[in-house]
Amino acid sequence: MAATKTLVLGVSGSIAAYRAADIAREFMRAGYSVRVCLTDSAQKFVLPALFEGLTGNPCLVDTFEEPITGRMAHIDWARQCDAVVIAPATANTINKIAAGVGDDMLTTIALATDRPLFIAPAMNPNMYSHEATQAAIQALTERGVEFIQPVEGDVACGENGQGKLASIAEIVTFVRDHLDTPALLAGKHILITSGPTQEPIDDVRYLTNRSSGKMGSALAAAALQMGATVTVVAGPQKAPLPKGAHVIRVQTAEEMLAATKSVANPDWVIGAAAVADYRPANRIKGKMRRESNEIALELVANPDVLAEIVKHHPNALALAFAAEPDDNLEKATEKMKRKGVIGIAVNDVSNTAIGFDSDQNELTLLLQDGTRKQSGRQSKTACAKWLLTQLVELEKSRV
Ligand code: CTP
Fold first, then answer.
1. Percent of the chain scoring above 70 in pLDDT
2. CA distance 230 to 220
3. Residue 81 among the catalytic residues
């Protein structure tokens, strides 16, 4: 039997701290040993005795506590766990960890550990969307921290918006999926195109589209968790890319094509980028001036990056994405054939719950042999894993 994994569960001072007891219990039910650490403000809502009774382990608060005399607990706990999960995490705790501040037991453990760190924020929507908090989340994501996004809804202060702690089931499943994902893609090199492209009109303006790059980032993160080597050729996207992926940044479709061609021997190629189909025929130097009420912008076609890559790497298994404005699958089927890919993952972007910038997606996977599969509505991370698992199955059935 596999050894029991140990989690440090950090609880900070959000009203959602009352849910931490159930989070600890659910992790224990899932087979983990749980050690809880509270911040000072968390203690205004919940007490160590609650967690000590539940988990059978000491619950730490003060940086200088030493359950074993002479042993520095923050170092022991940071080393002896398989992961640190902070749920709920306040803006204060997130911002402190991003800035490298360790002024209590929880933040010193978060700084001292080299194990995976998962953070489930819970706070007022304005605090969550605040530039400082978003910058901290971005910086931590780039350092490999995994965030379990808060959801939209009514929060304790009476406001409505994104800031409510994710459900306990989602937190536990997210962590389990990361820690216990089988390495189905070990030994594979996966090339992913991601995000939008920008096609300059002049030095200050460009044509682009609404892609956030979240699906490309989710695919990269899922492929890494499943043991792959990952290269991402990314346009100027908002979504941070996971630590561990080799990232090549580009701006235009032509640069994206050149960068993807420079990647040696990918086993799989996934086109998640929303490439601009056209670019201005002539890029104007400097700034185009307003000289008349009407102007015509001459556009020329961009290369089809994915179709070119399929020709360039004929042995790679290639998958396209299609963002369609309705649920009509004919266009997507035609695209799959035109691009020479093995399949195409289609999502209906007219549905705002799963469209641009959403954290959720719902994919229909169409395969060359006519098979259709549905992912169901899930987080983009879960959709990415589902899709990669489908491709593993598909590859197996071809040998
Ligand atoms: N794609 C690409 N290069 C392009 C256009 C699209 O690599 N110039 C890829 C996308 O990454 C995606 C797939 O092709 O995997 C389908 O993209 P989409 O924009 O939906 O299709 P288009 O081929 O552009 O067709 P249309 O604009 O007519 O829908």
1. 99
2. 6
3. no
What is the total residue count of the chain?
399
First to last CA, the chain: 32
48 preceded by a cis bond (ω within 30 of 0): no
Query: Can you tell me whether residue 95 is helix, strand or coil?
Result: helix
* Residue in the block written with tokens 């979504």: 239
Tell me the whole-structure pTM to 2 decimals. Answer: 0.80
Q: What is the residue with the minimal CA distance to atom 18 of ligand 1? A: 322
Q: Averaged over 323-339, what is the pLDDT?
A: 89
Instruction: Give the integer Cα–Cα distance in Å for 140 and 91.
Output: 13
- Residue 2 is predicted with a pLDDT of 62
Token representation of residue 235: 């346009």
For the cut 80, the answer to whether the pLDDT of residue 236 exceeds it is: yes
Atom of ligand 1 nearest to the CA of 320: 15
Grade residue 387 by pLDDT with cuts at 50, 70 and 90.
Answer: very high
**320 Cα: distance to centroid of ligand 1 (angstroms):** 8
Cα 204 to ligand 1 centroid, rounded to whole Å: 25
In this predicted model, what pLDDT tens digit does every residue of 66-112 receive, in sequence order?
Answer: 888 888 888 899 999 999 999 999 999 999 999 999 999 999 999 99
Check residue 360 and give its pLDDT: 81
Ligand 1 pocket (Cβ < 6 Å) reads 193, 253, 271, 273, 275, 277, 302, 304-306, 320-323, 335, 339
Residue 223 has pLDDT above 90, yes or no: yes
Shortest CA distance to 251 belongs to which of 217, 221, 207, 219?
207
Q: Which of 37, 59, 81, 157 is catalytic?
A: 157
Alpha carbon of residue 85 to chain centroid? 16
Longest Cα pair distance anywhere in the chain, in angstroms?
80
- Residue 214 to residue 80: CA distance in whole angstroms: 33
- Over range 301-324, report the average pLDDT: 95
SS3 content of the chain, % helix, strand, coil (to 5): 35, 25, 40
Pocket test for ligand 1, best of 304, 328, 347, 363 (most atoms within 8 A of CB): 304
Domains of the chain with CATH codes: 6-179 (3.40.50.1950), 189-287+294-398 (3.40.50.10300)
Q: Are residues 305 and 253 in contact, defined by beta-carbon separation less than 8 angstroms?
A: yes
